[in-house]
Design a protein that fits this description.
Layout: E1 6-11, H1 19-31, E2 35-39, E3 51-52, H2 54-60, E4 63-68, H3 70-80, E5 87-91, H4 108-114, E6 118-123, E7 126-132, E8 135-142, E9 145-150, E10 157-163, E11 166-173, E12 175-179, H5 187-190, E13 202-208, E14 218-221, E15 225-230, E16 238-242, E17 246-250, E18 255-260, E19 265-270, H6 275-282
Parallel strand pairs: 1-2, 1-4, 2-3, 4-5
Antiparallel strand pairs: 6-19, 7-8, 7-18, 9-12, 9-16, 10-11, 10-15, 12-13, 13-14, 15-18, 16-17
């Protein structure tokens, strides 16, 4: 059983509604002899206590506890993935596909996780690069998805989708979503994409409002390298968006490269965690 000794606490930035839960989590961890390190996002939510940058949590903690919604966990996961730190998500958001520990009931689920009664999942993380004349001009991780679209205006764009150096299709569409299994229940789902179990080794390639009836979602092997070549036509510029949080500008003619990161996100769930139950509850399947 892994013994956690130092936990970094990360919360939804500038959200006073999580203050009470934060105080409860600190008390719970300290009662279990786990040293608490407060991320800068907690600043002003507790009396006293030094706060640190997330990078220090990545380097010096053996557990990260995220309090907020899925968006808070997405941001933390991108910062922590290469440091192999397990993440626990405490749900103070709305949907909670990723943050699945209840803040109620005396944090019994968190206590069980700290004591080793947990389920660990290793989730895929995307690495996205913008290549211009063969040089990388911008890059970002994405836990849920990478989105390619026209910048600032609603307009069809032209692009080629190339998978493992083979041209798969030319698209005219509002854009393209490349999603991990975790992200299959996010923007991709609202565009008609499939729900993919979180441990399935696949990526989803999902066009946004394609201008052809024959265009469909495509699931590809997770080891694939996906490249999207933006045609140099009358569209002014493009935008690459990772997890709805990181925005990168691209030029027509650029190549967008997306592949799975070598390191995965380590999520810890309560022992009663069941992915299909979460789908049933969150998507109101009855």
């Amino acid at each position: 059983m892994t013994k956690f000794t130092r936990a970094g606490l990360i919360v939804k930035f500038n959200d006073e509604s999580v203050a009470n839960t934060l105080a409860d989590v600190v008390a719970c961890l300290e009662a279990l002899d786990v040293e608490v390190v407060l991320d800068n996002s907690t600043r002003g939510l507790m009396d006293g206590g030094q706060t640190v940058d997330t990078s220090e949590i990545a380097q010096n903690c053996d557990l990260a506890v995220v309090i907020g919604g899925d968006g808070t966990l997405l941001s933390a996961a991108r910062s922590l993935v290469d440091h192999h730190i397990p993440i626990v998500g405490i749900n103070r958001g709305r949907l909670g596909f990723l943050v699945d520990v209840s803040p109620d009931g005396g944090l019994d689920e968190l206590t069980q996780i700290i004591k080793g009664q947990n389920i660990q999942e290793n989730r895929a993380m995307l690495q996205t690069r913008i290549l211009r004349d063969g040089e990388c001009v911008a890059s970002s991780y994405a836990f849920n998805d990478t989105i390619i679209r026209v910048k600032d205006v609603l307009q069809i764009m032209d692009f080629d989708v190339i998978i493992d150096d083979v041209l798969v299709t030319h698209q005219r569409a509002d854009g393209l979503i490349i999603a991990t299994p975790s992200g299959s229940t996010a923007y991709s789902l609202s565009n008609g994409g499939p729900i993919v179990g979180p441990t399935i080794d696949a990526l989803v390639v999902q066009p946004i409002c394609p201008h052809t009836l024959t265009s469909r979602s495509l699931m590809v092997d997770a080891d694939s390298t996906i490249r999207v070549h933006l045609w140099d036509d009358d569209v002014a510029s493009a935008q690459i968006i990772c997890d709805g949080q990181v925005y990168m500008d691209a030029m027509l003619g650029d190549m967008i490269e997306v592949k799975r990161n070598a390191n995965r996100v380590r999520l810890l769930h309560p022992e009663n965690y069941d992915y299909h139950r979460i789908l049933r509850e969150k998507l109101n399947w009855g």
